Amino acid sequence: MDVSRTQVGIVGAGPAGLMLGHLLHRHGIDSVILENRSRDYVIERVRAGVLEQGTVDLMRDVGLGGRLEREGLRHDGIHLAFEGVRYRIDMAALTGGRAITIYGQSEVVKDLIAARTETARPLHFNVEHLRVDEVTSSQPVIHYRHDGEQHQLQCDFIAGCDGFHGICRPSIPAAHLTIYERVYPFAWLGILARAAPTSRELVYSLHDRGFALFSMRSDEVTRLYLQCSPDEDLSAWPDHRVWQELAVRLSTSDGWRPAEGAITQKSVTGMRSFVADPMRYGRLYLAGDAAHIVPPTGAKGLNLAIADVLRLSRAFAAFYGSRDSGLLDLYSEVSVKRAWRAQRFSWWMTSMLHRSDSANLFDYRRQIAELDYLVSSEAAMTSLAENYVG
Ligand code: FAD
Ligand code: DHB
Question: 60-85 as b/e, with b when 16 or more CB fall inside 10 Å?
Fold first, then answer.
């Protein structure tokens, strides 16, 4: 058995865990990052694409802005489409110049792994049988197997950045956590396609056959989503059917429609809203999807995860810099409050833009009326823009 120690043991090498490790490094704080998947799997997982202004600013401030600056696509606005018409919301004009940037989560993760590798601080992939122990003591421990050897990592603190299906949150006794949850009766069928985007900006569309979203990853790659059922069978969706349905739900009367191309990835993602409160138990701190999930319609999940770890890194820096645990004590309360803000927005965007099986025609007309109000009221557009850019 190998026994070692660190200041902060980080479980999970998604955006939250990797960014936390990077921020701690910049404060001179030791960490070990442990991930149960392979490096390739973590990099190739296709997920988020929209970075809020605050996430972009942070990446730049911590020395990760180079490729983002060159390859990220800054968008000042988004489109909402319904009843065959596209309306543009000029987010930058409504928020004093704030915008979003399209830069795939895989690119963020690649940049963070490269930065970690440069520091030579530990980042282990393919760890097995990881469990956290003694988290209410002054020296919590992470047990795991790696390369056939059993390890015991003694920590001052553990950061649970292991996503929704991780082990950190379930290791907190149920009596110490309140869970708030809503599972939606629909999902997203997402594709990546080798096709040049036909719109410079995103198009969120409500159609009577369901929601569709037009997004992109680069000048050559389109990312598209279709509302489907949570148990949708992908084999019933050959490429030609996907394109046909996208054309029906996205095309507008001005002749706009997405261009078709070779589909390189296709998957179905369920949708839920989830909050675990508090985000701390003893010396175990939860961050990102380990603590909360939002439905993807508001593009908030990754940004929320990054906001959590920025707050947590500042709290650890105050603790190690001046033995001040005030920020650590406040971490959960402040993070849960911010998570609820994102929950409200993501729930609202989701319910406005999706057709629910149980909804009758009244609900659909009400949704159209809401969109109609939204695109005709500067106050309503400003509210959407403020929440969307973060
Ligand atoms: P994760 O990315 O889930 O990382 C957790 C890591 O922990 C994983 O690498 C996992 O393998 C690892 N792990 C799990 N269990 C263990 C264990 N036992 N031991 C060790 N490691 C473990 N968000 C946005 O902001 N904008 C968007 O546009 C957007 N679009 C999305 C579209 C889709 C289709 C999906 C699915 C999500 C989208 N999201 C979006 C959400 C975003 O991808 C997540 O919120 C984000 O990945 C959260 O990061 P995280 O690091 O907290 O969790
Ligand atoms: C993307 C994902 C989202 O959830 C969203 O709201 C907008 C864009 C994307 O993957 O590009």
Answer: eebebbeebeeebbebbbbbbbbeee
